[in-house]
Amino acid sequence: MSSNILTKVKLAKSASIPLASVPGVLKDRALAAMAEALDSKREKIILANKKDLEAAEKLVEAGKLSKSLAKRLKVDDTKIDEMITGIKDVIKFEDPVGKTLSALELDNGLELYQVSCPIGLIGVIFESRPDVVPQIMALCLKSGNATIFKGGSEAAHSNRTIFDVLVNAIESTEGMPAGAFALMETREEVNEMLKLDEYINLLIPRGSNEFVKYIQDNTRIPVLGHSSGICHVYVDREADMEKALDVCYDAKVQYPAVCNAMETLLVHKDIAGTFLPIMGKKYDAAGVELRCDKFSFDILAGMGFLKAMLHATEEDWRTEYNDLILSIRIVDSTEEAIDHINKYGSHHTDAIVTENKTTACKFIDLVDSSSVMWNASTRFADGFRYGKGAEVGISTNKIHARGPVGMEGLLIYKYALLGNGHKVADYVGKNARKYTHRKLNSSLSQKMARD
Length: 451
Fold this sequence. Notes:
single chain; 451 residues; 2 domains
């Protein structure tokens, strides 16, 4: 174990204790400083990113970096504006730490409070996207969690520059503990981090299917995330044509490199002959390569102008392309569409386009995904769009945090029991006292303020 890694992790773990009790007003002051620093250091950040983009272009040409990862690298003024907006949105939220989730009187003078608190030390391991650093740092700071970041080497210059800008802003804010945030920069440090279950309480991986799966399979630390985004749109027999065309185009073409982009289009047989030729023209104009089952291939083959159309294989139904590639299958019923999604999907985000509310309800109830859409693009599955401010990531795990995860996924709780010399012995035996178990309307903060 590298002494440098262990030193950083131990320091962050120590800093997580005072960070957990920093007042909300100070955390908001530090967040505002982060936003101002990003704005004032734009040129420095963009120049650093340019180095990564130039190196990435060569890696793509050499076949050592995928185009989808390279696309996520770019940081420009628009991207920096989005980072700043995300941080400012987090400032608007109430301080989530110390909120009373439930209050119960066990007996006269004996009160139990369930209170929100930070997880502790979080490890964030990600590929490509430098905007992960301000997104997650803002949420971790607001929720009182110390954080270790490890980005991909392809974004090394961008990550280091953005990280330094943000941490300098935080640590220049009076009352903020030093060392709560650290950045690891070598490939070897990933495997070292995975062994540090004594210090790191939660891992959040952001990257490719293979990358996230590797993290999940090689650590004892709890992992929050998803390994793939195989998202579907099902066009029902009672779909509105214009809505279907808009949703299916947006879900695939608007930004194909992300995990909430559609990878498989399912179309009811009764509408396929009308819908697919029109949709095919739109995809053809956008340069989308189609992987079709026999029935959709037969419908589209006669169109002649399609530049890229192949027969789909079993593997296509299980593939996250992250590119302008789409698999298409015609189904006989809504039930068949649901079965296909639950069999081949990744439990990320799936959508139905229909005017039939009963059919939509069935789809929403039976599709086993963290987000289910009705007459809306899968691309809406995003923390910012869900009103969570910046996003930690998307979780397909069946745990407390599922779907786009904001601050609520970075909080756990503790119990505070307030008594007056109460002892268990009084509640045992023949003349035992009885518990009242009466719900209270007060909070722990109110109780402590009064007393």
